[in-house]
Amino acid sequence: MFQRIARGWHLFKQTFSILSREKSLVFYPIISGIIILLILGLLFIPALFIFSITGIDPDKMGVAGYALWILLLFAIFLVTAFVSSFFKAGIVYNATEVIKGNDPAFKDGISAAMPKIVSLFTWAFIAATVGLILSLLRESDNPLGRILTEIVVGIAAAAWNLVTFFVIPVILFEDLGAVASIKESWGLFKQTWSETVIAGFSFVVVMIPAFLLMAGTFFSAIFLPFEAFGGMLILTIIVFAVSVILISALQGILVALLYHYAKTGEISPLVDRDLIEGAFVEKKGSTTGTFTGGNI
């Protein structure tokens, strides 16, 4: 665990240095989040009206009601996936430009993503379908079945994330559709890192202040006046929002760094070679050698 946190801290510092060089990268997740919240808000109003009587209970909804609920759920997944993918493409493009030593503007990322909007939407449709299926699989009334289902779904979700790790940069930089990009993403990962699993490069360190504030908010609800609790709650929400925005930008930068390395074998002088080459770790018992990148 401590090794994971240490790696996350080093990745945070080095990807944050790229974010500091190109501050426009942080605007992509901000705008993405605002658009998603606005659209989901519009979807929530009719959902509130439709399901105000039956609630979200399959036993009371009937076939038509449940089908409508599934459709609404898919719409939520699709909106989230498409908007996130579009603006993540902007992050990846501008981050790649920074890696190459250029100084991109915010509009450059949008301009790069626009011609790929059909492929990005198709990818979002596929991702939303997979997300919906995994979400529905999690529904189980049997406690033992629920545990087993969570394990299976967790493994399936991790595998899906691995296979599609490079989908956005592949769509952005290569003349491929969504399905072909998924295949290329998986091939790119396999040929560069081979018998590997994801090491802990999640930016969990970024969330530490938010988690600490959450704990403080919980205790303030017990021991402090309501005003203090309200202030802590607002501060916690703000810190969580900032953390999520920051993580989204940093993960986009990381994907750009790893994709650039996988395609060219080159590593930006802005980051340590060992950190990129060791972004994934070999499975126990693996006989593969050192990974050098640029295998495609």
Uncertain regions: pLDDT < 50 for 5+ in a row? 194-201, 281-296
Overall mean pLDDT score? 78
Largest sheet: 2 strands, antiparallel
SS-derived structural category? mainly alpha
Could you explain the architecture of this structure?
This protein is mainly alpha-helical. Helices cover 75% and strands 2% of the residues. A two-stranded antiparallel ribbon has the order 1-2. Helix 2 packs antiparallel against helix 3, helix 7 packs across helix 8 and helix 9 packs antiparallel against helix 10. The C terminus is likely disordered.
Helices and strands in order, then pairings?
Layout: H1 2-21, H2 27-50, H3 58-99, H4 106-113, H5 117-137, H6 143-163, H7 167-173, H8 178-193, E1 196-198, H9 204-223, H10 226-264, H11 273-277, E2 280-282
Antiparallel strand pairs: 1-2
Features:
11 helices; single chain; two-stranded antiparallel sheet; disordered C terminus; 2% strand; 2 strands; 296 residues; mainly alpha
Concise synopsis of the structure shown:
The protein has eleven helices and two strands; from the N terminus they run H-H-H-H-H-H-H-H-E-H-H-H-E. The protein is mostly helical and about 300 residues long.
